[in-house]
Amino acid sequence: MKKYIKNNNRFSLLLLLILFIGTLTAFKIYDDGDDFELAKSFDLFHDVVREVRMYYVDDVDVPKLIGEATKEFLQKLDPYTVFYPENQIEDYKLMTTGAYGGIGASIFDKKETLLISNINKNSPADSSGLKVGDEIIAVNGIYITKQNISEIRKNLKGEPGSEIHLLIKRFGRENPTEKIIVRKKIISPLIPFTDILDGKLGYIKLNSFLANSSNEFRKKLKDLNEKQKLSGLIIDLRENPGGLLNEAVNIVNLFVPKGSEIVSTKGRVKSWNHDYKAKKDPLFPDLPLVVLINSHSASASEIVSGALQDLDRAVIIGQRSFGKGLVQITRKTEYNTRIKITTQKYYIPSGRCIQAIDYSHRNPDGSIGNVPDSLISEFKTLNGRKVYDGGGIEPDIRISEKALSKFTEELLRNFEIFDFSTKYYYEHEKISPVNEFILNNSVYNEFIKFVEKDNYNFQSEAGIMAEKLAETAENEHYEQEIIVKIKELQKELSIDKTNALMQFKEEIIPILEREIIKRYYYGEGMIRDEMKFDRSLKKAKIILSDKEKYQKILSGIND
């Protein structure tokens, strides 16, 4: 075995040398004046690898170390420049196409099991009878432990057509059940939900900007308009991390005049710089628009919201967007690998770049920070409204996100809401339709009793600090009397669960209601239920129903 490892490492080193020679040749072609320093660095790196390989006391997995060094090297640039080795090509395919081989279920860790947190309707997981709340305790005959749980998570994905054997523990059943599931090509929904709201308002939620997103968006919009002549449209880009630039450009082109500048890209390779303009006449040139964004709306989402804002074509509502103004391309590398590399920054019509973090100028300790206020510049929209660069898209109407209380966060972390919803599902064969279902006091009282039975004591931040103080006092061998007093204080600072459940009832109910609905009506049901409590959506409907107010915002006229 050791002989095989040594031979394999020698072969890998040979490949590495070939790669180095090729890289040096490439640098000589560009001839940027740094050839000598680069050649020197490569020579030194080769010498270090050779010395370690020949003289280190134990056998060394050189390819693995080089892989880790490559990863560390790229991380020093920015989080978006990534190398995909051959064994991660499935992740690469998911990133670029939204498709992967799998069972169509989302999971998260719970101790030494994997918990089914969401199931795609009509997916292999759904067809096999898997349910939200099922615990996976073994995969292909291998029981899950703390040591192997990360590796087993990856094994849920695989080639379409291949089988996977899951051992499932289900609520209310003593014995586990085996499920044999055939993986299929799973395509993440680009547009999980559309609807016509009150006042003939169209609503489209777009999850990502992958191949065909703009065509699907165009089709959904036309379908909505054919069902009901729309008086306005709400585009929901919240939680949308972005994707392909061209798809964003094509969506903006549905609403702005032909020839309008939508976005431009600028980078080190000048020949790659490009201005993206609307190539076609718009299908909906006068349809009033609102775009919803939040702090997780990034990249292509910011191109759409930023371009529509700069062209005074839409009112933006929500929270400041993420601030990713960097463009990546993916290039093939040797041995069926890929590298996704940042090549440019993008600039929206007013001329601003919305990149929030300055990766090119790090602090002395290597940390990074946001673009300083002193470097933020003012720009103007088409109508002369003031907008700024250096930190995402600032909405025209800001709706602050209400932070959850520490108590509610603890309920979520300890699976109290999730586990109660699972229990409720198996005790109630059906519930009312989504639009009619209301989590009443009777159900909430059941939830209170469920949480009260749990022996876990919820603590405030002060209680957590007291707990750490007690541990420190014990480790440093303080007098027992002092340790007892600290623990008494810690107990006093523990949250009274019953009182807290009543105090934070209004913020817990929507979360609990959605979790229950998900088990009956899948992801679409959750979205419909969220809309009942959605403050940004309510504001969007108000703005689109008031044409005078809508026009004043776009004209920069303040009341």
Attribute tags:
disordered N terminus, single chain, 18 helices, 4 domains, alpha+beta, 2-enoyl-CoA Hydratase, Chain A, domain 1, Pdz3 Domain, 559 residues, six-stranded antiparallel sheet
Broad shape: globular
CATH superfamily of the largest domain: 2-enoyl-CoA Hydratase, Chain A, domain 1
Over all CA atoms, what is the radius of gyration?
Answer: 28 Å
Largest sheet: 6 strands, antiparallel
- Under the CATH scheme, the architecture of the largest domain is Alpha-Beta Complex
Percent range of helical residues: 40-55%
What ranges have pLDDT less than 50 throughout 5 or more consecutive residues?
1-31
- How many E strands? 21
CATH hierarchy, class of the largest domain: Alpha Beta
Q: What is the strand content?
A: 15-25%
Mean pLDDT: 88
Fill in the CATH topology of the largest domain: 2-enoyl-CoA Hydratase, Chain A, domain 1
**Structural class by helix and strand composition:** alpha+beta
Count up the domains: 4
Distance between the termini: 78 Å
User: Count of helical segments?
Assistant: 18
